[in-house]
Specification:
The complex is a heterodimer of chains A (about 260) and B (about 300). Chain A is mainly alpha-helical and about 260 residues long. Chain A has twelve helices and no strands. Chain A has one domain. Helix content of chain A is about 80%, strand content about 0%. The longest helix of chain A has about 35 residues. The two termini of chain A are about 25 Å apart. Chain B is an all-alpha fold. Chain B has a domain of about 140 residues. Chain B contains 13 helices and no strands. Chain B is extended. Classes of the chains: A mainly alpha (about 260), B mainly alpha (about 300). Chains A and B meet through helix 9, helix 11 and helix 12 of A and helix 5 and helix 6 of B.
Chain lengths: ~260, ~300
């Protein structure tokens, strides 16, 4: 575990030394503050459009940070020729992968804390109340969703040739799941065989990231999600992380280091 | 004369020619109907496609009216054909059928059933408290206004934007002056629009209690009304606004005791109404009450 945490620590340091997070955070803040300065029909209590815009930017920024940070981890080690010395030390390939995953996930968690604190402050400035438990549920579900995406991108970084192609494919897949994942089975029913079966296989095998997208509940002040279902969603997320990390470990074991 | 000096003189000559040409061209360009230099950012960047976005934002406003409980293109949206926020103003012809609560249908599988715990799950309206169900909080309807404003900026010819915005500003936000400004802006963009004149009349009658002004505005609306040829929905919407205008005029005439004129207006409303029975009932009551014989 110590080894995994050491590798993870290096990844976290890398995130706060790079400018990606700062740029995205400042851009998000600027856009939101400019939008907040607009007064519509002289009513300063209108807030939901602002919450929606802020959450959308938080989601886009977090996905950009998660995918681009993860996609370059293993290829960068290969390119800098640091992978071989790293594995020569008492570090197994699985430990290295787990360390990279944990580092990226924790780094995204830290970024999310900053983003959600800003979101909470922005919403509270107009709503004058702070539904902390609702925000906790939304942020933690968001973080677990990023965990699945990071595990997927880590597997992709071992399968695809370049970080750019891996990032692009990850963005397309994640965007596709978030937009269409919930409706793939309805689409399948309108199609002839064997396309229908292919769609249904995809529907049942993809990670349904839309479970973790509870922005509508936060924007429109819906009550808390039942804690039982919330817990099940987290277990569902952990399940997919394990699947992708196991896949990545199996692929990495068979690959040559150079 | 040396080379560089010729070049400088030539450059000065070109500048003078440019300036001389710019003076007449500028006025021609401003007057040209195809000019995009009218200061409208949306028109310059999006062109005619902005109307598509405007409709999206109008639908977005209706989605906010339901606190996010809204059908997607994959769901059964028969109960949402006409935006409920517009339907509830009473100034728009409704085309909605079917169940509002169950547009998603029964859960198709365990993934669908589980996913429904993470999204808005019941039909509510913001003016009735929204997701909280707090009936005292009907001012929450303010949240639809940014999207309506954006929609009307993108498509100033969509009169529904102005009617819906003005209605909610007046009814729930208690801002009749702002509502009037919105309607006058709509009238400026759509001169003589019967729908906007109807809503403006309601504003004068109900908020300003200025019945004479309201009647004048409704009369102007009736004067501008024309029968149209088009799809069934377009004709129905056009007839609906005439019916509303004529019914309002009838009610006003009945209030001041002009029974005969009131009956005439109700008759006119009945001639275009989809459900003339209710109007006929009103006419019959008036005739019985005041012993007015039908005109032969």
């Amino acid at each position: 575990m110590k080894t995994i945490l050491a590798v993870a620590g290096v990844v976290i340091k890398e995130l706060y030394r790079r400018k990606d997070f700062y740029v995205l955070f400042i851009v998000t803040m600027l856009i939101c503050l400019i939008m907040a300065s607009v007064r519509i029909f002289n009513d300063d209590k209108i807030v939901r459009y602002l919450k929606e815009m802020c959450l959308l930017l938080v989601w886009i920024s977090s996905l950009v940070i998660a995918i681009t940070t993860t996609a370059r981890q293993i290829p960068a080690e290969r390119e800098n020729r640091t992978l071989l010395p790293l594995l020569a030390k008492p570090v197994t390939r699985t430990q290295l992968l787990l360390g990279k995953f944990l580092g990226c996930w924790l780094a995204c968690g830290i970024a999310l804390v900053c983003f959600y604190l800003f979101f909470g402050a922005l919403a509270a400035s107009r709503e004058h109340h702070w539904p902390l438990l609702n925000y906790f549920q939304a942020a933690s579900l968001h973080w677990f969703m990023l965990g699945i995406v990071i595990a997927m991108a880590l597997l992709g970084s071992l399968v695809f040739a370049a970080p750019s192609s891996n990032s692009t494919i990850c963005f397309v897949v994640v965007g596709g799941i978030l937009l269409l994942g919930r409706h793939l089975d309805s689409v399948a029913l309108t199609l002839p065989e064997p396309v229908r079966s292919a769609f249904l296989i995809v529907y049942y095998s993809i990670p349904h990231l839309e479970f973790f997208d509870v922005r509508d509940l936060i924007i429109h002040d819906w009550p808390l999600i039942h804690w039982g279902y919330y817990g099940l969603a987290l277990i569902y997320g952990i399940g997919y992380m394990v699947v992708f990390l196991t896949g990545a470990s199996l692929v990495f074991r068979r690959q040559s280091v150079n | 004369m040396s080379g560089p000096r010729i070049q400088i003189w030539f450059l000065i000559l070109l500048l003078v020619v440019c300036f001389a040409l710019a003076c007449p061209l500028q006025s021609c360009f401003v007057a040209w109907p195809g000019s995009r230099a009218n200061g409208d950012v949306f028109a310059i960047t999006l062109g005619e496609s902005r109307k598509l976005f405007a409709n999206e934002f109008f639908v977005k406003a209706d989605s906010y009216y339901h606190s996010g409980f809204y059908p997607t293109i994959f769901d059964d949206n028969r109960a949402f054909k006409t935006a409920h926020m517009a339907e509830d103003t009473g100034a728009v012809n409704s085309q909605n059928h079917g169940e509002e609560e169950s547009f998603m249908g029964p859960p198709r599988n365990w993934i669908d059933a589980f996913g429904r715990h993470f999204m808005p799950d019941r039909h509510t309206h913001l003016d009735e408290g929204g997701a909280d169900g707090d009936l005292s909080g009907s001012e929450g309807v303010r949240e639809i206004l940014p999207w309506l404003k954006l929609s009307s900026d993108l498509d100033p010819q969509n009169v529904q934007n102005y009617i819906v915005t003005a209605y909610w500003l007046r009814q729930r936000m208690h801002q009749p002056k702002t509502a009037q400004e919105v309607l006058l802006e709509g009238l400026h963009e759509n001169p003589g629009s019967c729908d906007i004149l109807f809503e403006l009349g309601r504003l004068y009658a109900e908020s300003d209690h200025d019945t004479n002004r309201a009647v004048n505005v409704w009369m102007a609306g009736l004067h501008n009304w024309r029968r149209i040829k088009g799809t069934e929905d377009e004709v129905a919407a056009n007839n609906f606004i005439y019916e509303k205008l004529a019914t309002q005029m009838g009610s006003e005439q009945a209030d001041v005791g002009n029974w005969q004129a009131a009956i005439e207006w109700f008759e006119k409303a009945k001639s275009v109404s989809k459900s003339p029975e209710a109007l006929q009932q009103m006419i019959d009551i008036l005739r019985q009450k005041h012993s007015i014989k039908p005109k032969s």
